[in-house]
From TrEMBL:
Primary localization class, coarse: membrane
Protein family membership: Belongs to the TonB family.
Domain of life: Bacteria
PANTHER family membership: PROTEIN TONB, PROTEIN TONB-RELATED
Membrane topology: Single-pass membrane protein
Organism: Stygiobacter electus
Name of the featured protein: Energy transducer TonB
Upper taxonomic lineage: Bacteria, Pseudomonadati, Ignavibacteriota, Ignavibacteria, Ignavibacteriales
Record-level GO BP terms: protein transport; transmembrane transport
Record's subcellular location: Cell inner membrane
GO MF annotations, alphabetized: energy transducer activity
């Protein structure tokens, strides 16, 4: 029994030595490994910081500019005329004759008085544009083809058909001197799409111009549009 106990103690000591040895090696390896990681991290961060600094740095070359160009003021050259006036051949004047500074050419003709006529001012009369839409004129506007054809172009709205709407829409039309309808106003309507249809039909209808004193004028007139199925 004593020998068995000695063997167990000896085995325990051997295991303890092996454990301490392995523990030491493991500790050294762990320290070296962490030291390697730490140094690698420092090295990488330094490289990245240097690259960032290189990217941010910009080299600016300064070029020295020369002196500004001189400003030359515009000089005005003054030309002096040295030419002398020429005269005709001077002759010695005899006693009792009038003298003259120059000789009159033989072919010269006496200068006559020139009459200047006053220019006549031509006044142009500017005709004023009449913007009045007359209610009553000598010849009232009339649609081409007559009121009957205008009525034939009317489309009975579906909404009015569904609600059995029957009646007339009274539209005031403003017709210019060219027979064109410039605008419309609903005097009395039926609704249900009838007012819009009546206004659209009249706006798209061409009229014979109304006349006053033989001249085309602007006219306003009320036109009834009938709606029925």
């Amino acid at each position: 029994m004593k020998s068995t106990l000695d063997k167990n103690i000896y085995g325990f000591l051997e295991l303890k030595k092996i454990y301490l040895k392995n523990y030491f090696y493991g500790l050294v390896f762990a320290i070296l490994f962490h030291l390697f990681l730490f140094l690698s991290l420092i090295f990488l961060t330094q490289n990245e910081s240097q690259e960032m600094i290189k990217e941010k740095l910009q080299i600016v070359n300064y070029v020295e500019l020369g002196p500004p160009p001189s400003i030359i003021e515009n000089q005005i050259n003054i030309i002096k005329e040295n030419s002398k006036p020429t005269f005709g051949n001077l002759k010695a004047a005899k006693k009792g004759e009038e003298t003259s500074d120059f000789e009159t050419p033989k072919e010269s003709k006496p200068v006559r008085d020139v009459k200047v006529e006053d220019s006549k001012l031509v006044e142009k009369k500017v005709e004023a544009v009449d913007e009045t839409y007359y209610v009553s004129v000598d010849v009232m506007p009339e649609p081409f083809g007559g009121i009957e054809k205008l009525q034939q172009n009317v489309t009975y709205p579906d909404e009015a058909r569904k609600n059995s709407i029957i009646g007339k829409v009274f539209v005031k039309a403003f017709i210019n001197e060219n027979g064109e309808v410039t605008k419309t106003e609903i005097i009395k309507g039926l609704g249900f799409g009838c007012d819009e249809e009546a206004s659209w039909i009249i706006k798209n209808t061409r009229f014979r111009s109304g006349k006053k004193n033989g001249k085309p004028v602007k006219v306003q007139m009320v036109i009834p549009i009938t709606f029925h199925p």
